[in-house]
């Protein structure tokens, strides 16, 4: 049998696949979500990416290294929010989404980045950005966003800020495989760490944060030292081609949705990426979000 361009999954996944194929189970509806690949240049050349390791108690991908991000909140579409940069229609064209969803995705990207890293892509005007956010008042606002007692629109409005969507760029679009019980329809953005701000270890959903070179992360995954979901691994592999943040932000990206498939063969179940992405997953180990276990590499 020819090799499948995929990742070996735990044996019990085959039963889930059969349940779905034979109608004994229904696939979960994916939730719209945003994730932001936060980047910075290094003194010696090259780029680093900000990553968080999810705590082992998380129901989705525990122990995996991820980028800041999360689900769209109902209030992310608030039209009273100050807005600078590409219009929702332009974002919708980039991501294949309607204007309302596009607005929600961009707002979710900014909100989740602030909640999980303390970095805020907003400024007093369309061409300025807030500086140091390390004060107690900013931490109180971040926590209020987390417990949903404050919306992003209310936070920006009270502080006289506008969302700086022009600091983001569209990068990718991934949909969680149908075998997963928790599924997300996630748009990936890239952004530079704003000058004067610093990413902080503040997320309650992670037990470790790190700035890492994309190549180093890919090699660590190959050695089994970093657990990565396939979309994360593919993104990091793509980023190894760039030597500066400016080059990443200037990249022309034709974003299309990727939906990995699960195939069952005589020797097990495999998560299979589209042929266009063959070679983007290094050998070694990757996380299956089914239960967060680190599962084997290419057959």
UniProtKB/TrEMBL annotation:
CDD domains: NUDIX_AcylCoAdiphos_Nudt19
Keyword Metal-binding belongs to the record: yes
Stored Gene3D superfamilies: Nucleoside Triphosphate Pyrophosphohydrolase (3.90.79.10)
Alphabetized InterPro entries for the sequence: NUDIX_hydrolase-like_dom_sf, NUDIX_hydrolase_dom, NUDT19
Start and end residues of each Nudix hydrolase domain: 30-234
Keyword annotations of the record: Hydrolase, Magnesium, Manganese, Metal-binding
Protein name according to UniProt: Nudix hydrolase domain-containing protein
Record organism: Actinoallomurus spadix
